[in-house]
Amino acid sequence: MDTTTIWIVIAGLGIGSFALRFLFLGVIGNRPLPPWILRHLRYTAVAVIPALVAPMVLWPAATGGQFDGPRMAAAFVTLGVGLATKNVLAAIVLGAVTLYGGLYLSA
Amino acid sequence: MLPASDKSAFWMGVRSAAPFILVVVPFAMLFGVVATEAGFTVLETFVFSATVVAGAAQFTALQLMQEQAPTFIVLISALAVNLRLAMYSAALTPHLGAAPFWTRAFVAYLTVDQSYACSVAAYERNPDWDLRTKLIFFFGSCAPVLPLWMLASLAGALIGQAIPPAFALDFAVPITFLAIIAPMLRTLAHVIAALVAVILALTFAWLPFNLGLLVGGLGGMIVGAQAELMLERRLKPGPQP
């Protein structure tokens, strides 16, 4: 990764994120948004993040895109614990335990 | 109930956000570690966390950069993850919109999941608070979370330089994302949005420039919004025309 790209991403994302945060507080003010826009905004995170993660789980870069049992198991444990407990930290820890346990057993 | 003083409003804010320290510190350290593994310097990692102040978007950008995605795809995708910040901004405006310009700019910079959630909840519990009290509470709710976010990123970056690559840290990003997203799947419409996004992203993974991600994200948003409308209609059968 070259330094110029890194700084372009940092600057672009820093300015863009601030613009999103300042959009209403600073610019649009107290005018209400059309409901259809708010309705789509509600689903941005739960759509974009799973779309990002799914290929990483199914075709991990570390195995050259080959299906990997321990990584798949870790993904399902993390998701399951997160759904059951709503506890982000517990989900990360148990997911990591599953990953390292699986990698150890399959080594 | 009106707090007795500015000081007590500030401490109420601090206390309301304090439990998030347990999540923010490990998450920020993980970001620092993963960023240095990906080739960021310690300085770049720290500036990234200090200017963007949004973990999920930072992880998204990092992952796509590692996949050699073009820079505009990196920016569009990470900003899409951050679209919820515009929603937070809209929700805070009725409460803090009357503050002076530079104060509003500072509030905007500090608008994150935790400060938004704590403040809006407190404003709804205390409708008699004036602007000054609301602002002081908001800054109080930022105090335990945001400095630690930046410092823990820095600590993670320093630690990350010492961790050998054999530690399967490639999978830290998907695990973290799944852990964040699982508690957000609150309604059937959220689950449908996520499932459609996954199916579309995998189906269109062959597209160049990681465009499959945008197809999946956009498709999931549209289907989620439509599902919400349909579910609402079914729950509240109004008078038929």
Describe the 3D structure:
The complex is a heterodimer of chains A (107) and B (241). Chain A has five helices and no strands. Chain A is mainly alpha-helical. Chain A has one domain. The mean pLDDT of chain A is 89. Chain B is an all-alpha fold and 241 residues long. Chain B is built from 13 helices and no strands. In chain B, helix 2 runs parallel beside helix 4, helix 2 packs parallel to helix 10 and helix 6 packs parallel to helix 8. The radius of gyration of chain B is 20 Å and the shape is globular. The mean pLDDT of chain B is 88. At the A-B interface, helix 1, helix 2, helix 3, helix 4 and helix 5 of A face helix 2, helix 3, helix 4, helix 5 and helix 6 of B.
Topology:
The complex is a heterodimer of chains A (107) and B (241).
Chain A: H1 3-28, H2 35-41, H3 44-58, H4 69-85, H5 88-106
Helix pairs in contact in A: 4-5
Chain B: H1 6-17, H2 21-37, H3 42-52, H4 55-66, H5 71-81, H6 84-96, H7 101-109, H8 113-125, H9 131-142, H10 146-160, H11 172-181, H12 188-203, H13 211-235
Helix pairs in contact in B: 1-9, 2-3, 2-4, 2-10, 3-10, 4-5, 6-8, 8-9, 12-13
